Description:
The chain has eleven helices and eight strands.
Amino acid sequence: xxxxxxxxxxxxxxxxxDTGLLDGVTTNPSLIAKTGRDxxxxxxxxxxxxxGPVSAEVAATDYDTMLEEGKKLAGxxxxxxVKVPLTMAxxxxxxxxxxxxxxVNVTLCFSAAQAILAAKAGAAxxxxxxxRLDDIGQDGMNxxxxxxxxxxxxxxxxTEVLVASIRNPTHIVDSALMGADVxxxxxxxxxxxxxxxxxxxxxxxxxxxxxKTGQKILG
Length: 219
Ligand code: E4P
């Protein structure tokens, strides 16, 4: 399973990219607004930090403007994936951009029916938002299970299931169990993944015993 980080903060991205754990980045207009920086500049910088896909979202809602925005964003760097919302105009834009060889991430997916449409439109990624479904009392992971199962029925489909709106490590483990292709993870959740109290306890005991040997590995 691939790991994308869900942020537009270039310092956070730089730090995580250095770990070698990162396969891509997703941004959205809210994350861009948080940076207070110029959108195109931020995307350009992020694209130099990771080799994998960097999602940059269109701001228009009509097809013609969306398409123009998508073309502009795709021209920023080779690894830009243009993000479009799951609307009829977004799907039409997806179709057109995909035909031109642009990677498209169809976002704001909340149903399996929407995911089927995105795949038909040639999306490289479908982004179902699990946390936002959990927030309204539904089980977001059921949607991932359905989409993974549906896409598996059509081996020629190239659309990857990109689990979005992740809130905790369990969302990631469940995504892996279900065979989702990608998780886009907020930086704080990515850091939580590494932590286990027994790891900390075990390491402290090993270090204390090592100290007693009086030895050094280096020098
Ligand atoms: C995905 O691409 C979105 O940027 C993101 O996962 C949305 O998450 P949120 O529901 O935490 O805003």
